[in-house]
Amino acid sequence: MTSAETVKALAALAHETRLAVFRMLVQAGPDGLTPGGIAETLGIAASPLSFHLKELSHAGLIGARPDGRKIYYSAHFAAMNDLIAYLTANCCGGQACEANQPADVCCTP
């Protein structure tokens, strides 16, 4: 992930509603959710939700999958993992953490 892509992703997540939508889609897993389900759960109208879904999509954090007359949105887990990896890449002075060890464990002095 480039620094420009990172800034775009972080900017998309830097809004309370978009962050809530993204977290909801992460929890929903690969099957995703319909805009109606998202709107009902978060209590927001369709028009602002469409705007937020578009912003997350343009940042590469979510994708849409048509299924008949419905559209399902789901998180792009690879993009999410790339973002986390970019943010933590130098946590140990540029050294890789041991396998399966989170950065907060291997980087603690």
Decide which structural class fits the backbone: mainly alpha
Strand order of the largest sheet: 1-2
What count of helical segments does DSSP give?
A: 6
CATH homolog superfamily = Winged helix-like DNA-binding domain superfamily/Winged helix DNA-binding domain
CATH fold assignment = Arc Repressor Mutant, subunit A
Helical content band: 55-70%
What is the residue-averaged pLDDT? 90
The CATH class name reads: Mainly Alpha
Q: Spell the H/E element sequence.
A: HHHHEEHH
* Radius of gyration, in angstroms, nearest whole number: 16 Å
* CATH architecture descriptor: Orthogonal Bundle
Global morphology: elongated
Task: Supply the key terms.
109 residues, mainly alpha, Arc Repressor Mutant, subunit A, two-stranded antiparallel sheet, 6 helices, 2 strands
Task: Explain what the structure shows.
This protein is mostly helical. 56% of the residues lie in helices and 11% in strands. Helix 2 (16-28) packs across helix 4.
